[in-house]
Amino acid sequence: MRAPYVLLVVFVLMLITGLLLGGFGKVFVHGIVICLDCIGLI
Amino acid sequence: MVARRWSQVLGTLVANPWFAYFGTRTIYQGSAKGLCFPGFNCYACPLALFSCPIGALQQSFALLSPRFKSVSASQAAVTAVKRAASYPVSALLYVVGFIGLVGVLTGRLVCGWICPFGFLQDLLYKIPTPKLGLPRWMRFGKYFALVVVAMLIPYITGVHWYSRLCPAGSLEGALPLKVLPPKTPLPEVGWFFWLKIAILVVFLAWMVVTKRPFCRTACALGGAYAALTPFSFYRMQVDSAKCTSCGECKKSCPVDINIYENANSPECVRCLTCKKECPTGAVTSGFGRPSASSIFERESGPPA
Which of B4, B62, B15, B8 is nearest to B38 (CA)? Predict the structure, then answer.
């Protein structure tokens, strides 16, 4: 059964590509946004 | 399951070790927040060190939205959004890759062993009260939460509605920040704050009477891991020759399933309590190669 291996490869490639393109830092930026934005104090 | 309890305590502490907040009153914004925590933990929590994968996922979809607009509470956040808006695809790839990798390797093991919100639900259910079951159809709620509320609606509206309504966010973020406000001034509490608190109270009450209601009906992260559980490399197995269908597994199961009906059910959080409680030792688990029968059919069933 190949599906789990295909999924594994796809997700690893997505993760690595995201990291190489700067996704790591972008999640960090989103973290700040949501921290300040989602507390419901509006 | 002493090991699981310690693992849940450790998971909660690893996700929330920023005790410096009590002194500095500053939400952690260091590089560790560039990493997602595999469990469901709000990164608005003053103690949070890592990002919430669902928060990051929906924010990525919101940033991709043609209708994206900043609804941020401060100028700093507005600036951050504008900077991030240049590269939303990289964040989306990173987050989807992260969630997918955890899911395909372990299924919902994270839910059972390290998720802080799952831990809270396990503890609240121990309060002695009359208990209620959960209608089967409600299990589809977590997939709706994932696809519609955490992805589609943020893309259409440009606003991360799942985070805004999330009870974990209210408990770990909104309430602590209200009680111990950060140095950065925040807007006054409005009606939306009380709506969030009402949702939280409903879920907390539900957790006392029903086994893990949030995990089973509304957790978008649980929905993602559940969808990948049938494909995951970490497998449960039930030896039908040993199984007597006595039901001990269901009695101890934190999500109320019969493991012998579907050993790799998307509902199973891999807590392994059934493995310990099974009087005949019919339940086993471990990493292995998923077979076609285990994905598209039931891997095991009750004895004839």
Answer: B15
Coil, strand or helix at B41: coil
Question: What's the gap in Å between the CA of B279 and the closest CA on chain A?
Answer: 32
Q: Which of A1, A37, A41 sits opposite B71 (nearest CB)?
A: A37
Answer yes or no: is B9 within a domain.
yes
ipTM of the prediction: 0.85
B42 and B171 both lie in a single domain: yes
Which residues is B234 bridged to in the sheet? Answer: B287
Do B181 and B270 share a domain, yes or no?
no
In chain A, whose CA is at the least distance from the CA of B104?
A: A8
Q: Nearest CB to B94: which of A3, A4, A18?
A: A18
Contact B232, B270 (CB under 8 A): no
Location of structure tokens 């059910």: B265
Tell me, rounded to whole angstroms, the distance of Cα B150 from its chain centroid: 13
Closest chain B C-alpha to A33 CA, distance in angstroms:
5
Residue B83: CB atoms within 10 A of its CB come to 12
CB contact under 8 A, B91 and A18: yes
pTM to 2 decimal places: 0.89
Q: DSSP state, B291?
A: P
User: Does a structural domain hold residue B190?
Assistant: yes
Q: Cβ of B80 and A19 within 8 Å?
A: no
Which residue, among B50, B93, B179, would best test binding to A if mutated, counting the most A CBs under 10 Å from its CB? B93
**Spans of all domains in chain A:** 3-37
Q: How many domains does chain B have?
A: 2
B278 and B184 co-located in one domain: no
pLDDT string in tens for chain B (304-residue length): 689 999 999 999 999 999 999 999 988 878 888 889 999 998 888 999 998 999 888 888 887 777 765 544 455 555 555 555 556 788 889 899 999 999 999 999 999 999 999 999 999 999 999 999 999 999 999 999 999 999 999 899 888 889 888 999 999 988 898 888 888 777 677 888 889 899 999 999 999 999 999 999 999 999 999 999 999 999 999 999 999 999 999 999 999 999 999 999 999 999 999 999 999 999 999 998 766 555 544 444 444 4
